[in-house]
Amino acid sequence: MSTGQFPRPILMIMPVTVPPRMYLNNLAPELKVEIILHLRNPTSLARCSREWNNIVNLPSTKSKWLIGRHGRTHALFHAVRMGEPFINLDVVECLFAQKAHISRYFIQRLVLGFGKCDSRLIDLKLTHNMGALVPGRRKSIQNKIRSPWASNLSFDVYSRILKEGHDRFDGNDIPIRGNDMESFYYLSAGPLVINQARTKLKKNKKEIKTLIRRYSHIPIQTQSRAAIFDDCPPSDGYENVRQLTVIARAILIYPKLVNVWKKNGYPEIVNDVNDLVMQGSLLILYPSSPSEDWVKPGLAQVVDELNDLILLGFELTDALIGDVLILFEHRLKDIGEILIDA
User: What is the pLDDT of residue 228?
Assistant: First the structure.
């Protein structure tokens, strides 16, 4: 450097901080939808910006999210459960376009729940029948009665779902006031003890298959921890666990029903009744009140029974084994070692 010359200044490039929101907004729409589909609840993401809010609330996004989270079998049920403003006519159309499942039983349950309740009449009945209640308890009962599943649907959504059922199931002859789950109960010999039920169910298996194939009969989903003594049907729309017990019992009597359901759009049947079926199989092998001619099953018989169910997709999980050991706590000498070996 010659005398009198100043050194060249060094340019300092300061990092520019870009808010995370700008990165998210610049993503391609397809990628935004993909992110939404992996979220348990996209509501918080919808608050990030107007762009995200618009994509989260697209009918196509909502229907894909429902199917991704609950499967085609239960997507329509959860759309109705979430109610307005989540569900609208466009969301229903997208669900049907994406092959969401609908059954005649679903239509029957929808008709049962639709419509607003008379709040004043509820108050009068509670006052007359129950007298003075703890305020919190009274409010809980009022909310349960006033807002059953499907009660807050708009009429256009309700009528569109009814039309779909009308077009698929018997037109004007559809028994809207019927109950396909109750029909299944009697056809599968629900009132009879299981030894007598085998013969009865086999006589009715053609009608049972028609119920599944023609009218797409499946149980509505239960909550993970459903109350055993809840209303039947429960006001929140979920299936009562007793109804799933009817399904599980029929499978134990006639295991081929599993394949009938799988072929007719209900692959979740195994997952939905897994624990009930596996527990039921053990209760048949080890009845709580054994008859005088009951013979304790050997290891080979237990293995064969369980393997037949496992081949259909059922699982004897560690958690289920724990539940079974508690269930048979007073008979661990009969079942403990054999179950572990099996």
Answer: 44
Q: Comparing 145 with 49, which gets the higher pLDDT?
A: 49
Of 146-155, 196-205, 297-306, highest mean pLDDT: 196-205
Count of structural domains within the chain: 2
Closest by Cα among 150, 70, 145 to 107: 150
For position 139, what pLDDT does the model report? 60
- Per-residue pLDDT, averaged over 89-117, amounts to 94
**Helix H or strand E segment including 297:** none
Phi, psi angle pair for 231, to nearest 5°: -60, 160
Tell me the CA end-to-end span of the chain in Å, nearest whole number. 89
Q: Which two tokens stand for residue 238?
A: 């979920």
Domain that holds residue 297: 268-342
User: Using the 8-state DSSP alphabet, how is residue 87 labeled?
Assistant: -
Q: How far is the CA of 35 from the CAs of 16, 22, 41, 45, in angstroms?
A: 26, 16, 11, 10
Average confidence (pLDDT) over 222-248: 72
Tokens of 85: 């403003």
Mean pLDDT of 10-38: 72
Asked if residue 47 lies in contact with residue 76, where contact means CB atoms within 8 angstroms, the answer is: no
Tokens for 80? 């109705």
Peptide bond into 219 cis (omega under 30): no
- Stretch (H or E) spanning 124: helix 119-130
| Contact status, residue 232 vs residue 240, Cβ threshold 8 Å | yes
**Are 186 and 234 within one domain?**
yes
Do 218 and 188 belong together in one domain? yes
Q: Sort 236 into a burial class: Cβ within 10 Å, 0-12 / 13-18 / 19+.
A: middle
Which tokens belong to 301? Answer: 């018989």
Average pLDDT taken over every residue of the chain: 84
Can you tell me the distance from the alpha carbon of 110 to that of 92, in angstroms, rounded to the nearest whole number?
14
Mean pLDDT over residues 314-321, rounded? Answer: 85
Domain boundary among 241, 267, 293: 267
DSSP state at residue 9: P
pLDDT at 18 over 50: no
